[in-house]
Amino acid sequence: MSVAEHPEGSIDCEVLDHVLLISINRPAKRNGFTPKMFRELGEAYTRLDDEPALRVGVLHAMGEHFTAGLDLPTIAPLMRRGEKAIPLGLVEPTDLGTPGYRRRTKPMMVAVKGITFTLGIELMLAADIVIAADNCRFSQLEVRRGIMATGGATLRMAERAGLGNALLHLLTGDEFGSAEALRLHFVQKVVPAGQELDEALRLAQSIAAQAPLAVTATRLNALKAVEHGPLAAMQDFIEVQQRLSNSEDAAEGVRSFIEKRPARFTGR
């Protein structure tokens, strides 16, 4: 997909069967995010959750880099007023549970490459599975600009890598590569540059072939275990399994097992 670049950038969407491909499109500015792009990203994530035919999202970027982060001159006025660029009521891409915003329910893959600074790291940490090119340059450099990372890095870096490893990168704003991101569990796979989107799409299509209700329930239960603890997540087991077992997809799962064929799930 190739869409002309808007001066303020754009977030472009393409449907590939049950996968929503979401493209960050402002390569001339290293995909620096403007208020317009934030708004459109929220709309894209909301579309993924609201359209029943869509089962998995894949976020990637046009050009050589994922994103240099915020286009600070356009975003700073919002920061000073304490405002957010994404309209209330939409799905929040950083998935923080901010009051007034929805949380994503369906899986999101992210393919990162080249410069992946600040917001780029926060978007990938908020996603479910991250594929990184081996040429990535990561930096959470807000402290170098006199501000703090407020898109989830302070929470999720420590959760994934431990407090010391998180503060090593948060407090220095240093630059690190794909191997370090893999070691710290910020990304799940590293592939040769140029293959990251293909690999993300391959995994997304594999997830999209599974039973959608079961995929969503599994994701939400794993997330609940991380955020509220394993005992809280375990308390949902019987209720969720009973609901899934009475779905058309569970019946199809049994039929496909008996008939020794791939299941054809409908999400009902």
TrEMBL record:
It comes from the Bacteria. InterPro entries: ClpP/crotonase-like_dom_sf, Enoyl-CoA_hydra/iso, Enoyl-CoA_hydra_C. GO terms for molecular function: catalytic activity. Signal peptide: none annotated. SUPFAM superfamilies: ClpP/crotonase. Pfam families: ECH_1. Belongs to the enoyl-CoA hydratase/isomerase family. This is Crotonase/enoyl-CoA hydratase family protein. It comes from Variovorax terrae.
